Amino acid sequence: MRILLLSMPDSFEHTPTIAIRIPNGALVSLAGNLDPHHQVAIADLVLAQSSVRRTIEHLIDQHRPDLVGLSVMTFQRATARRVIALIRSLKPDVRFVIGGYDPSLAPEAWTHPDLGVDFIVRGEGDVTFRELVRALESGRPFGEIAGSLYRDGEEFRKTPHREAARLDRDDIRPPNRAARALSGYTMMGRPIDVVETSRGCTFDCSFCSIIEMRGRNFFRFPIARVIDDIRDARDRGARSIFLVDDNITLDVDRFESLCHAIIDAGLHRIDYLVQGMTAPIASRGDALAALMRRAGFRYVFLGIENVLDDDLVFLKARAKNSRLNSAGRTNTSLAAVNVLRRHGMLVVGGLIVGNPGDRRESVVANLEFAKRHVDWPYIQHPTPYPGTPMTRDFEQRGLVVNSQPDEYDGTTAVTRGEHLDPEEVEFMRWKAERWMKVRHMPAAFRHDPWFVLRNGSRMLAHTFRGTSWRSIVGLEEDRDVFRRYRAIRRRERQYLDWPDPLAEPVPASQQRRSIAAAR
Ligand code: B12
Ligand code: SF4
Question: Three-state SS for 477?
Answer without folding.
Answer: coil
